[in-house]
Amino acid sequence: MLTYILRRLVSVAVTFIVVSLIIFLMMHAIPGGPFDANDMPVSEAVRAKLMAQLGLDQPLHIQYLRYMWGVLHFDFGVPYQSPGETVTELLSRAWVPSLVLGGLGVVIGAPLGILLGMAAALNRNTWIDYFASTLATLGLTIPVFVTSMLLILVFAIWLNWLPANGWGKPERWILPIVAYALIPLATYARYTRSAMLDTLNKQFVTVLRAKGLSERRIIFQHVLRNSAIPLVTVFLPMFIGTATGSIFVEAMFRVPGLGAYFVSSIEVRDYPLEMALMLMITFMYCIAYLLSDIVYALINPRIRVGGAE
Q1: pTM of the model
Q2: Residue 130: which pLDDT band, with cuts at 50, 70 and 90?
Q3: What span, in angstroms and rounded, lies between the C-alpha atoms of 227 and 195?
Q4: Residues whose CB falls within 8 Å of the CB of residue 164, separated by 6 or more in sequence, listed in order
Q5: pLDDT single digits (tens) 46-60
Q6: What percentage of the chain has pLDDT greater than the value 90?
Q7: How far is CA 261 from the centre of its chain?
Q8: Is 77 in contact with 67 (CB distance < 8 Å)?
Q9: Per-position b or e across 265-280, b if 16+ CB within 10 A of its CB
Q10: How crowded is the C-beta side of 64, counted as CA atoms within 13 Å?
């Protein structure tokens, strides 16, 4: 297991370097720059001074190596759109709303989706199964910005129960959390239903029933454990994807989270912030998949890690 983890950590480092190089080259391949005349009308002399001050007049490989050297020292530079703070300070400030709302959405939505999927699998071809399947399909097919608009229309405008947008008071969190929670709820409902139906049809379940084990013990000790393997693999990546901010949810509910900075950093060519956001997401996804694989192996000892017995 230790060898497997070390090998995966090396692959994480390689992936991190390759992704950083691709992002850096793509970022600079887009026509225009942070001090273009159309976006920022400054004189040529001022523009040249700014470019030299930020090191943007250097060859690309020099710029890349300097930036990555800073990353190794946890220095992600200064964002062009907020020069009064560092990128680290900006991300620390903007990540709180995304982490709170997205994290709570996954923590609430995933267990509800598992319960819904279990109910559907244990009551196959009944109204419970049809209801759960329909809800899961709608949750996966309806875009999140449409769901957000419906929540605002019903609960903020028609019923006037909750505020439509903003950040600060807990009542303003409810609608964004519901919008976030629908995604893991629908995903887990479908995964759980399929995994449990597949496990229930295994031969060992028939053997357990023939031995006289209670249905509750079969479900919770054997079926659910075997069905949990695919659920584990999607939880952490989904948590990372949701907790790092949704552009649509944060835009619809005017949440000052990370989602808005993904768009603005590309629009204004904010290279340090754009790189920092993408590197942060890449690193977190790599670690999430690494942890998922380790938990995957721990849940099912039959799985051979790296081909070892």
Answers
A1: 0.76
A2: very high
A3: 5
A4: 152, 156, 157, 175, 253
A5: 778 878 888 888 888
A6: 10
A7: 15
A8: yes
A9: beebbbbbbbbbbbbb
A10: 15
